[in-house]
Design goal:
Layout: E1 4-7, H1 19-22, E2 35-36, H2 43-59, E3 89-90, E4 93-99, E5 105-114, E6 120-125, H3 127-140, E7 144-145, H4 160-179, H5 181-184, H6 187-192, H7 205-254
Antiparallel strand pairs: 1-6, 2-7, 3-5, 4-5, 5-6
Organism: Ornithodoros erraticus
InterPro entries: PX_dom, PX_dom_sf, SortingNexin/PXDomain-PKLike
Subcellular location: Cytoplasm; Early endosome membrane; Late endosome membrane; Lysosome
Length: 255
């Protein structure tokens, strides 16, 4: 699973979003990401529209309190016995950061807290990490459809309003998989949140940032190596093509 896990003794965040965004409750009309295939024709569009409405309502001054990582206020009619009344973990997304080094991307910071013990740590995940998790869960639970906020094909992917919308959609996704008894216990979800191997403590947010930058540097080096290999392959293919031409000319000369 991609991304980093790290523990903290404090309540720091990389870049926090407004409290109303992090600690709000979605309205009952928003579709549940775990709807059946037959009832989910327009789930992604409806979910995104509801999230945009929520964000615009927040911008106009209205707000609601509530933990976005628990509860069932936006569930569709699934069997009640697949949901847990009180999830074992609280998992709010408490902020995000746009990484500026070389390839630009956004990481979301998730605070994972074990309800009974109070122990908590942070995991850092990109949007692509969520999509990978969603694909794995779809294979594991083929009767359910998992909805994520849609990709943005045009416009600025780093616009704060867009990132707030995306954060809300990812939080709804987390909320519902953690409220589902079987999905929340799956190996894929436990690995995503580092539930079986919580990370060791890190003293400062600077150490967390350094780890993120180290990972980014590694990705950059691997990308460079891949590009070099591609260039080498193209060169060899060109050389092979020339040799075949020469072979053809020689064969004609011999005849």
């Amino acid at each position: 699973m991609g991304g980093r896990c790290m523990m903290s003794q404090g309540a720091e965040s990389i870049t926090t979003v407004p409290g109303e965004v992090c600690n709000r409750k979605e309205p009952a009309a928003m579709p549940h990401p775990l709807e059946t295939e037959a009832s989910c024709q327009n789930a992604d569009i409806a979910c995104y529209s509801a999230l945009r409405h929520n964000r615009e309502s927040l911008s106009s001054g209205s707000s609601n309190s509530g933990d976005t990582s628990t509860g069932r206020d936006n569930c569709c009619d699934l069997e009640d016995n697949v949901f847990v009344a009180t999830p074992e973990y609280n998992t709010p997304i408490i902020g995000y950061e746009v990484m500026e080094e070389r390839a630009r991307f956004t990481v979301f910071k998730i605070r994972v807290e074990h309800v009974d013990s109070g122990r908590y740590w942070f995991v850092f995940r990109r949007y692509t990490d969520f999509t990978r998790l969603s694909r794995k869960l779809r294979l594991l639970f083929p009767g359910l459809r998992l909805s994520l906020p849609p990709k943005r094909w045009f416009g600025n992917n780093f616009d704060p309003l867009f990132l707030e919308d995306r954060l809300l959609g990812l939080q709804a996704f987390i909320k519902n998989i953690m409220s589902h008894r079987d999905i929340s216990r799956s190996t894929q979800v436990r690995e995503f949140f580092c539930l079986d191997e919580p990370p060791e403590p890190l003293d400062t947010i600077e150490e967390s940032r350094a780890l993120c930058e180290s990972l980014e540097e590694k990705v950059y080096r691997l990308t460079q190596q891949l590009q070099e290999k591609d260039a080498e392959i193209e060169s060899l293919q060109s050389e092979l093509s020339n040799l075949r031409v020469q072979q053809s000319v020689l064969a004609k000369g011999i005849k």
